[in-house]
Structures are given as C-alpha cells and as structure tokens.
Amino acid sequence: MRKGPLHMNPTLAEIDQLWQIPAPCPGPLGLACDGPNLWVGCGETRRIYGMNARQGTVFEEASAPAKPYGMCVTGDALRVIIAADETDDRVIRRYIFGKDFKREGIRCPDDTGSFLAYDGDSFFVSQRFDQRIVEIDEAGKTLRAFPTPGQVTGMTIVGGRIYVVTTVDAKSKDYRLVRMDAHGAEPEVTELAAFPFVARSLGFDGTRFWTHDRDARKIVAFSRPDLSS
Questions:
Q1: 115 near 133, Cβ under 8 Å?
Q2: Confidence band of 4 (pLDDT split at 50, 70, 90)
Q3: CA–CA dist 99, 96 (Å, integer)
Q4: 67-87 burial: b if 16+ Cβ within 10 Å, else e
Q5: What angle do CA 87, 32, 93 make, to 5 degrees?
Q6: Assigned domain for 1 exists
Q7: How many Å apart are CA 116 and CA 133, to the nearest integer?
C-alpha cells in the first residue's frame, strides 16, 4: 500500500512523443541511456544491444548469462538484473562495454527485482509485485525500502529524484509517468503524464526520456514533462 503523499493530476496529459525507432528485438524489456547511445535488453533473445539513438542502428550485441531485465549505466559498464533459469533468482551483473559480462554479481534483495537505477552511490531495485523500491549499496546491503504508487515497469534517476513508469496490474492498459522524491521520511509522489501504450523500462539521456512501446516493438523518445516544476 502506498504510504507517501500522492499529488494526483486530474488533467493528466499524454507524453509528448518526439520520435520512435524500431527495437532490435521482439519484446524489448531493459533500457539504459549512455549519452547518444541506448542499451536494450531482450528476454526472448537473451541478448543486449547497443544502439545509436538517432539512427536506430545496432553497433554492439552480446549474449546475456540468462534473461536480462532492468539495466543502468555505471561509468564504462552496464549493470543488468539477470534472472536465473531454474530458480528465477535475480542478480545484478556487470557488462563491460565492448567486452562481456563479469562473473561476479550482486544479489537482489529477497532474490527479486525488475528494474534498476543508480545515483552514483547506491543502486535502486524495483520490486514490481511487492510495490516497493529497495536501495542497496554496491555490496548488496539493504539501506532502506519505500513503497511505490503501483507496479513499477520502468525506472531511472534524474536530478536526484526517481522517475518510474507505473501501472495497476498486468491486465491494465493504464500506464503513467510518476516522479518520486524519496529524500524525506515518506516519498513525495507526483503524477506527470500518461502513456498511450504498454510502457516498459525508462531511461534519460540528459535531455529526453526513452521507453519501450512493448507491443509495437518500438523505442520511444519523449520530452520531460516537469521542466517547469
């Protein structure tokens, strides 16, 4: 249950889409931004793809150890949530750009997690069905946990605040962009925009947001809706 205050927007507008590029795989799931480049993870192909965001071309491709979920950029590497084949236990693994996945990993809290963000010091792991985000250090120690206003299907950090894609459940077609300020005792939650499609993952390239239109197999860039707030 959500415990923090939610600032409902009674006239919630749809995201302002800037452009779309085809996804390099069916059912794109993970997404991270690295300057002009995008990184895409796919559970069906069990691969990750480096893409030029403007041209939509793939410049790097690699096999993942198992099914990849959420990911984020940390310096010269990606951190990717990987699901074990037999147990579905989740571990954060490091992929070095231009090379391969490192063998060592960080265990996700309670062996579960879908999407991943990094603020330069800590990792934030979203747990969709528990409807919470867990902050962990680089050794995997839990620092704190706080509730989310729904099931999270994408997450990134911009300016010290967490932006998430939320929905009610797997059957819902209602997907929303929500900003969370978790610096206080309880997170302050503000709805920003609605998605006109089933959105998966969330990234920010310094200017614009990116997400997957899962069913259309497209990657969508959209403008930041809270620049004036």
A1: no
A2: very low
A3: 5
A4: bbbbbbbeeebbbbbbbeeee
A5: 35
A6: no
A7: 9
Residue 78 in tokens: 């990606």
Tokens of 215: 């069913």
Q: Pull the structure tokens for residue 72.
A: 């984020």
Please tell me the total count of domains within the chain.
Answer: 1
CA-based nearest residue to 53, from 20, 101, 16: 20
Helix, strand, or coil here: 109? helix
Structural domain boundaries enclosing 70: 6-223
Q: What is the pTM of this model?
A: 0.93
Do residues 115 and 154 make contact, with C-beta atoms less than 8 angstroms apart? yes
Length of the chain: 229
Do residues 190 and 198 make contact, with C-beta atoms less than 8 angstroms apart? no
Work out the pLDDT band at 34, boundaries 50, 70, 90: very high
Six token digits for residue 164: 């998430």
Place of tokens 């010269």: 76
CATH number at residue 192: 2.120.10.30
